[in-house]
Amino acid sequence: MKAKLTSRSVAGLKPKATPFEVHDKEILGLSIRVLPSGSKTWYLRYRVDGARRRLKLGRAESMTVAQAKSKAREALADVIDGGDPAEAKRRGREHTLGTFLDEYEIWFRANRRSADTTIVRLRAAFGGLMHRKLSDINPWLIAKWRNSYLRDGKRTHAAANRTIECLRAALARAVEWRYLDTNPLSGVKLTREDSNARVRYLEAEEEKRLMGALDARQERARQDRDNANVWRRERGYPELPDLRAVEYTDHLTPLVLVALHTGCRRGELFDLRWADVNLRQGGMLTVQGRTAKTGQTRHIPLNGIALSVLKAWKGQSGDASAEAYVFPGRGGARLNNVRKAWTGLLAEAKVKGFRFHDLRHTFASKLVMAGVDLNTVRDLLGHSDLKMTQRYAHLSPEHRREAVERLVSNNVVAFPGAKAEHGKR
To answer: How far is residue 127's CA from residue 245's CA, in Å, rounded to a whole number?
Structure first.
């Protein structure tokens, strides 16, 4: 039987003694099957290399007519491109979360910038679920995982939310690849976070100790090089480059200073090339959209310290060509890790509970405390939403005090002690 399938017509289909199907007049191959129990299921029939295939799209109880037709069109487009949606779904049933992540990682590395951190996060957090069939992942398992994840109190709700969002995004790709009918995490609610929680930034004394530790670290490197060259000179070996002839002994000091004075993310600095740095006309650093977290290009003016640091660093760089990385790793490749050097620096400076990313928070916090408006801070940080920047609002030195003081200046009703209080002023 054929009919134009609409919300009204589908709702009006009554069960019979035997199963029956109604085929849609609009989309060739799309049908809805009605069982004697009253259950209704969407199917799509098509051919691949002459062979007939049938793909289950989903139950009508959880899929509207519009959604069923949309999935049918997507599947038929896949068939036209040479794919087989039913075969993809069969492979999806065979996938465990672990084997799916193997495949997802290949796609992720080719299309996303945060591949290392995201894939590592997923494998580490959900290690206990890797053996589970992809189709077995459900909200109950994730709720159980979250309770375990937060049990010892060492992890925050924000960290749990970010991890669940990473898995939700991965499973959305599984739906797109037709390994799953629907995203099992689409209905999982994130826990509430305190958006006004204290932002970690360097206090004045901490910043002083951090700068002192950077200087001490450089001096040790210079002393070690001096001693090494004395040893080589005495034995007639060629001497190594004199580290006292350059401003910086390695990349850590300029990297930290540029992060502190531009607010760039660590990955953005790792991706930065000299073509993105203009050291003339006051200085400007460009974060390219392809390397930015938001995908949007932004331009950050260089203040005096950042400009001076980058000029000195470029002057001593072995390769300062346009396409060279500003902070290269071994052999000029992209730098991907400063964990060991950063951890050692924090230990020497006696700065606790501070991440490299908190240099970005320090940049933003100092701007707000200096009276810079939040919208300008948002532009400099590259936030897509002012809500992200709002976390720094409480640091503004005057705006809230001025607001509550207006209650005093506008008060025309006497109150107990008012005369005495005003007299004190």
So the answer is: 50
Opening angle at CA 152, ends 201 and 353, nearest 5: 15
User: 7: closest CA among 57, 68, 58?
Assistant: 68
**Over the range 58-79, which residues count as b (16 or more CB within 10 Å of their CB) and which as e?**
bebeebebeebbebbeebbebb
What pTM did the predictor assign?
0.63
pLDDT digits (tens, 9 = 90+) for 135-192: 889 999 999 999 999 887 778 888 899 999 999 999 999 888 878 878 999 888 888 7
Question: Which residues pair with residue 33 across a beta bridge?
Answer: 21, 41
* CA proximity to 325, closest of 361, 276, 380: 276
The CA–CA distances, whole Å, from 249 to 258, 272, 376 equal 16, 20, 34
Sketch out the chain's domains with CATH numbers. Answer: 2-83 (3.30.160.390), 94-176 (1.10.150), 218-395 (1.10.443.10)
Which pLDDT band, with edges at 50, 70 and 90, does 423 fall under? very low
Contacts within 8 Å (CB) and 24+ apart, 304-312: 305/257, 305/261, 306/257, 306/258, 306/261, 306/262, 307/279, 307/282, 307/283, 309/254, 309/257, 309/258, 309/261, 310/254, 310/258, 310/277, 310/279, 310/283, 310/285, 311/279, 312/247, 312/248, 312/254
Q: Bigger pLDDT: 264 or 409?
A: 264
Contact status, residue 55 vs residue 69, Cβ threshold 8 Å: no
State the Cα–Cα distance between residues 308 and 401, nearest whole angstrom.
37
